[in-house]
Design brief:
Rossmann fold, eight-stranded mixed sheet, two-stranded antiparallel sheet
Amino acid sequence: MAASPLLGPSSAFITSAPLFFPAAHIPKISSITFHHHQRSEKPSPLHLHITAPNIDSYRRLRAASADPPPPDAAETSTIGAADRSKDRRKVVKLAWDKLVRWSRSWRSKARTDVLSTTKKVVVLGGGSFGTAMAAHVAEKKAQLEVHMLVRDRQVCQSINDRHLNFRYFPEHKLPENVIATTDAKAALCGADYCFHAVPVQFSTSFLEGVAAYVDPGLPFISLSKGLELNTLRMMSQIIPQALKNPRQPFVALSGPSFASELMNKLPTALVVASKDKKLTNAAQQLLSSNHLRISTCSDVTGVEIAGALKNVLAIAAGIVVGMDLGNNCMAALVAQGCSEIRWLATKMGAKPTTITGLSGTGDIMLTCFVDLSRNRTVGIRLGSGEKLDDILGSMNQVAEGISTAGAVIALAQKYKVKMPVLTAVARIIDNELTPRAAVLELMSLPQVEDV
């Protein structure tokens, strides 16, 4: 056995741990012995004899120089999920911030001169929605005169003396700039805008009676929803024809809204529709507030027909509740009703997107599924077995769906559209079919492709 220099040829066979340590931590090596072998033989490992006092330092340096162990699968999954969640939150925040910036930019450019130049508004009708709209507009500008033309002298006195409509909102104080009158000439004289809130079936005779006091350029904003029973006309046809002025400016206001929630300043979204874009923009500015969002639309037919037919569908939805037919039946019936409304509306020239929008599907959902709906309430009572005459005798408000149902069927025949659900409602209202028989007949209809 012979000794070999540390850097001699045999050093190529050193296979032990790295010998590169910081100077302060070099372990004391008592001896290094190399074993020479024949070239054909496999070299043996290097034997290091390290003194005990420095072995702990050596082990620490070995641990520090080694790569960290890879994380296990669970740890990797947790880290990945946290990163993804952080990225998702960042994306959502950026999207929201962009939306808010766009909204603020749009509002800063929006015109507001309509309200500033409007001095007088008249509301025709003293019902719940007419009262709610009068209160809403009056609160936007204290200097604005809001005149309500009512036929009930007691309601008129209640509004003027106590600032409340005791018949519909006995607990809601009206703004002091809401003034009631039974004098059509005084109400309409000098008005900048007119809100029509008279029920559809009485609108023609009412308008003919006040036509002499209506300025030919006075914009009418219709709050009434429905179809005239004998003529099948919508309000966009009734108003100009009753006033004998085919150019009378007209806007339809529609969408999912209960008067009581509007009075309570709960968030609400509505649609104004007119063929005159400037007029829709003016109506939007007049009505928009921090709790009432107004969208504009040019599809007057779609907005009006959806607002009329949804009342008939709501009666059907109420019947399902009154008969306790369950949620499956309710969903199927309303879906079928929505399709029927779309079929007829598009045949009449409406846009399908209007029917699936706020003034269509939005209004349908509210009227069909919420107990505040008058038409749904009528349906519930019919489904429970009550007679229609008894129901109508106990109501102090008009359920437009009752009179609209017959008109809907006439329209369906005119445009050659099959409307089984809405036709069944009309038959029930005419007392020619019981709710139970109607359900059995509808369930027996041919099962066709869903469109």
